């Protein structure tokens, strides 16, 4: 595993564009810290400081930071599709196979890289969240601090699943730009299918089915936290209540999609004439 990971890291670090994108993808999550210190002047009457509103208290901080950090995943997605695009354009994929790397090892080297960068990003977000929470939170009990840390695990799986999808699309079309375009097309297709199912049956049934679609399943791992924040400020508003928790079946769906994307990537490479 380490041999394959080291091989892939060497390729990425020798590419200037990849190095820049990797750097940006690791730096952007730190903007969550800026969010915590943001002060908004409301027409000169008073200053609204987000850190003082209680939204960075434990355990909600785990939910808030992982949701915002996950929005920056597209930068490393470009790196993932570029990994495949460069292999085909530079013909290094053929050279690697000639040098003794099996097709299975080739796909595994990409997957190990995905897991590695997802893990590094997850550790960074966990540390950032912990630091912000310890600074702003009114609750310092260990039981409260550790509550809802499953959002960190959900963040990791969300990255691995999304990047595995990008890997599959990169293998499918061989070009970075086309792979990213297919990602957008998949997003549109999911909503078209949702509309057709809702028209045929009802919106509630359509939403349940949509939760099994790959992009929506990844999104559902970490639901938007804004409604939850509103619930803490207006506890008497029962209509604001919604299910924001991380569930085991959501983990299972995304894990299944991840395994399928890696398997399909391998099958494509195995059957393709290089």
UniProtKB/TrEMBL annotation:
Q: Does the keyword Ligase apply?
A: no
Q: Where are the transmembrane segments?
A: 20-40, 60-84, 111-136, 151-170, 177-199, 251-269
Q: Does the keyword Transmembrane apply?
A: yes
The protein's matches in Pfam families, at most eight in alphabetical order, are given as:
ABC2_membrane_2
Q: Which UniProt keywords apply?
A: Membrane, Transmembrane, Transmembrane helix
Q: What is this protein called?
A: ABC transporter permease
What species is this protein from? Gelatiniphilus marinus
């Amino acid at each position: 595993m380490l041999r394959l990971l080291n091989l892939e890291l060497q390729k990425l670090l020798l590419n200037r564009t990849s190095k820049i994108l990797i750097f940006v993808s690791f730096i952007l999550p730190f903007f969550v810290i800026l969010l915590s210190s943001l002060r908004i002047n409301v027409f000169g009457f008073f200053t609204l400081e987000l850190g003082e509103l209680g939204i960075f208290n434990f355990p909600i901080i785990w939910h808030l930071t992982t949701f915002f950090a996950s929005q920056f995943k597209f930068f490393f997605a470009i790196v993932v599709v570029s990994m495949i695009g460069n292999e085909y354009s530079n013909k290094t994929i053929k050279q690697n196979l000639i040098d003794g790397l099996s097709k299975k090892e080739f796909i595994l080297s990409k997957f190990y890289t995905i897991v590695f960068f997802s893990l590094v990003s997850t550790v960074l977000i966990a540390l950032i969240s912990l630091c912000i929470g310890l600074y702003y939170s009114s609750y310092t009990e260990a039981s409260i601090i550790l509550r809802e840390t499953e959002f960190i695990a959900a963040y990791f799986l969300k990255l691995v699943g999304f990047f595995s999808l990008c890997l599959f699309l990169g293998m499918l079309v061989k070009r970075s730009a086309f792979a990213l375009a297919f990602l957008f097309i998949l997003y549109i297709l999911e909503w078209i299918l949702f509309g057709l199912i809702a028209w045929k049956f009802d919106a509630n049934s359509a939403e349940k089915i949509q939760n099994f679609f790959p992009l929506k399943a990844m999104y559902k791992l970490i639901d938007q936290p804004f409604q939850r924040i509103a619930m803490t400020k207006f506890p008497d508003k029962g209509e604001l209540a919604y299910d924001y928790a991380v569930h085991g079946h959501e983990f299972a769906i995304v894990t299944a999609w991840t395994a399928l994307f890696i398997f399909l990537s391998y099958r494509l490479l195995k059957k393709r004439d290089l």
